[in-house]
Design brief:
The protein is of the alpha+beta class. It contains 2 helices and 3 strands, in the order E-E-E-H-H.
């Protein structure tokens, strides 16, 4: 589970490192997120929930969390909390 955050958006991908393929992806720019309003941390939590739901549909329950050097607070923490709430384990 790889996280990238910019000043305005947040992106997350579940990647199979052995094959080099992205299995599941979600971001704050997805079409279903276009009408979502709120603070960036609230939106990051929703993105985490979305990626966890997509992962469960694919049969993925356990991942390794890669925060890409970002500190574990704010939007990165909110994304992780949202994913955990929907049942993703890491």
């Amino acid at each position: 589970m790889s996280v990238f955050r910019s000043n305005k958006q947040i992106y997350v991908q579940l990647i199979d490192d052995l094959q080099g393929h992205t299995l599941v992806a979600a971001s704050s720019r997805d079409k279903n997120m276009s009408d979502t309003q709120g603070q960036k941390t609230e939106i990051a939590k929703i993105v985490g929930q979305n990626v966890a739901e997509k992962a469960m549909e694919q049969g993925i329950e356990k991942v390794v969390f890669d925060r890409n050097g970002y500190k574990y607070h704010g939007r990165v923490k909110a994304l992780a909390d949202g994913a955990r709430e929907k049942g993703l384990k890491f």
